[in-house]
Structures are given as structure tokens and as C-alpha cells.
Amino acid sequence: MSEASVHDQVPRGALVGIGILLAVSLVAVTAVRVSGIDVRTPDAEAVMVRELRFEDTANGGVAVIDARSGLVVESFTGEQGFLRGSLRALARERKARGLGPDLPFQLIGRRDGRLTLIDTATGTRIDLESFGPTNAGVFGRLLMKPDAADGGATAPQVAPLASQSLRP
What is the model's pTM? Predict the structure, then answer.
């Protein structure tokens, strides 16, 4: 045995310890998953809800349309990485289930400032705050913004507690 290989070996006790730690972690995770315990923080009360549709535009952008009024809320051009990525994931889920773009998405602002995007067609949800304040802020603007096509006269559908402010 060469001198270099003797010094490169990991002590047997350390390997056994790592193996035991991995086994205990795997058993603990499996126990929680099988038990059905919900490890998510419960959703805070919704203070604002807006139903939106997203459509590709001729110039390669994305038009955000208020599903109730049919008016454009905002148009995005350029890459818009997070917005496009989120919508692409939701569209892929719809396509896999054979569903079209007819049903709107619900954008929900919660009392604690969190934002949730729910696909009403599939029930898939994205907790937007999980992606940081800058990315969540892209959708947060859509919740607060009036329709663009009517000069801002139509406000979003607001739940009774709309006086609560939302963090961007």
C-alpha cells in the first residue's frame, strides 16, 4: 500500500456515523410524509383576489387580462424570466391534463403580505413569496393595478378587508 493511500482513507467510525445519520433522516422524512402531517404554514386570510388570464401577444409579449372585465391590466415585453417561467409551468400542467386556457388564474393577496397564484383549472398553486420579494413583486403589481384599457376606472375585485396593505 502506498503512503498516499493510507492518508486518504476516511476513518471507519466517521463512515458509520454518516450512514446512521442518513438512515435516521430518511426514516424521519418518510414518517412525516406517510402520517399526512401538513408541514406548510396555514394560509393567512385573503384580503385581495383577482382573476387573471395571460395571453401571448403578436410582438412576443404577454398581455395580462382581468378575467371579470376582459380589459388589459398590463402588457409585458422582453424576457420577463420569472413571470414567463411561472406561467410556462402552469400551462404545461394544463396541457398535460388536456385543459385549455379558458379558465382564469386567481392571484390572491393575503393579510400577512404573501401572494399565491392558483390555477383554477388544475388546482396547482405557486406561493410566490418563496421566490423572493422582487419576483413576487411582479405579480403583486398585477393585484393592485387597475385595468389599463379603461383609463384606470375599473379596480380589481377586492375582498372585504381590502384596507389591509400588502408588502410588494
Answer: 0.64
Is 74:145 a contact under the CB 8 Å cutoff?
yes
Give first-to-last CA distance, the chain, whole Å.
Answer: 63
Give Cβ neighbours of residue 44 (< 8 Å, ≥ 6 apart). Answer: 110, 111, 112, 114
Q: How many angstroms separate the CA atoms of 87 and 93, rounded?
A: 10
Name the stretches of the chain with pLDDT < 70: 1-7, 79, 147-168
C-alpha to C-alpha distance for 61 and 98, rounded to whole angstroms:
24
Q: Which three cell numbers stand for residue 166?
A: 400588502
| Length of the chain counted residue by residue | 168
Residue 9 Ramachandran class (φ > 0 left, ψ -120 to 50 alpha, else beta): beta
